[in-house]
Amino acid sequence: MNHDEFALLAPKFLTIITDRDNVNKLEDILREKHVLFHYMFNAMGTASSEILKSLGLSGTEKTVCICLEPNSKVLSLMTSVSDRLSLASSGNGITFVVPISGTSAVVSSMFREELEHSKERWEKWMDTNLEEIKKEAGYAAVVSIINQGFSEILMDAARSVGARGGTIIHARRSGIEDAAKFFGVTLQAEKEIVAILIPREKKKELMQAITKKCGLNTEAHGIVISLPVESCSGINFQPEE
Predict the structure, then answer these.
(1) Tens of pLDDT along 148-207?
(2) CA 76 to CA 69: how far, in whole Å?
(3) What is the pLDDT of residues 194-237, one digit of tens each?
(4) Adjacent-strand bridge partners of 12
(5) DSSP per-residue letters across 42-60
(6) 177, 87, 55, 72: which is closest to 121 by C-alpha?
(7) pTM (predicted TM-score)
(8) Same domain for 99 and 23
(9) Which residue, 132, 153, 186, sits at the end of a domain?
(10) Could you tell me whether strands 93-99 and 231-233 are parallel, antiparallel, or unpaired per DSSP bridges?
(11) What are the angstrom distances between the C-alpha of 223 and each of 61, 100, 126, 154?
């Protein structure tokens, strides 16, 4: 496989966060685009009631969808989702792309077969749409895993450095119990995962603010990581006045 073919097959995660009412529309798009690997789960938005009211939204229930797609298809899918779910309008959701380092052999072979059928069509589409969909790779996804009940404290810290909102996913810790002894803390089983998309130049400041309020040395016992974001849609980062 030459370099160009490898670039087309490189696996990417497209993450879509939208109102739960849009699930049927999103599923229609995924079927039409023949997305083989996608996973949906429920989450909660973190916008305050005042912000929701100003945007005309009735609640904070969200659906998070993660799609595993080859590079050759991810931008087309992202554009379709942005257009049909009206992500350009504030409050309708966001979508962003995260690169990954590899997949299993079976997944890679399926991507390769798909490429043979769609390479010419994809290249033609790219020639006519690339400039329209191209986004500056200027964002990072900051993901925090904290004890349940500390998400509001975390978001207060995040807003203090300019973050506008995030998405909360409820989770449960599993693993070797000796890990708690190793870190010298008692790890609560019930967790909250908080994902925040932020301009890359604000990433360090955000991670420091979260660690100070919700890090391992606090009652939240939080772990904070960041992921590179190649492109995104639906986010309008403006500092609050």
Answers:
(1) 999 999 999 999 999 988 999 888 765 545 555 544 555 566 889 999 999 889 999 999
(2) 11
(3) 999 998 899 999 999 999 999 988 999 888 988 888 778 776 55
(4) 69, 99
(5) EEEE---HHHHHHHT----
(6) 72
(7) 0.64
(8) yes
(9) 132
(10) antiparallel
(11) 24, 21, 39, 12
